[in-house]
Write a structure and sequence with these properties.
about 150 residues; mainly alpha; two-stranded antiparallel ribbon; 2 strands; about 5% strand
């Protein structure tokens, strides 16, 4: 009987550790994805200045691909650890969940403008992409990391 209690306790501790490891891994993964998007945005800015349409298109498509992954990195309970994610993400998840689609659409429009080598459209679409990022960050990202 005592062995059974120890076994059940051990399983419970293991499950808790596994869950907490997964939760912290989500924060790390989403930070890596967002850093990738930031690097792509910086590369887009430099490529626009150089009129490197191929890079603008490729980096916009990279952001599009990342947009498909965003919601998977914000499951319930992943608001712990070192993160800048605000509680509003989970409190207003329906609102938050619209942002990856907006990001993907804006990045797609930028990629299309780059493919067409349309400088005026590229300039407008870069601003639109930045606005999508900024609006989401204002609503759902804290200025400082929580611990």
């Amino acid at each position: 009987m005592l062995q059974k209690k120890y076994l059940l306790g051990g399983v419970a501790v293991f499950a808790a550790l596994l869950f907490s490891t997964q939760v912290f891994a989500q924060a790390d993964k989403r930070q890596a994805l967002m850093k990738n998007n930031n690097a792509a945005a910086k590369a887009i800015k430099a490529a626009v200045e150089a009129k490197d349409y191929t890079t603008v298109e490729a980096k916009a498509r990279n952001i599009m691909s990342n947009a498909d992954k965003i919601l998977g990195f914000f499951p319930k309970g992943s608001d712990t650890g070192k993160t800048r994610a605000k509680p509003e993400i989970w409190e207003k998840f329906d609102e938050f969940s619209k942002n990856p689609g907006k990001l993907k659409a804006a990045a797609n429009e930028l990629a299309d403008a780059a493919k067409a080598k349309d400088d005026a459209a590229i300039t407008a679409k870069v601003k639109a992409l930045g606005a999508v990022c900024s609006n989401c960050h204002k609503a759902f990202r804290a200025e400082k990391y929580s611990e």
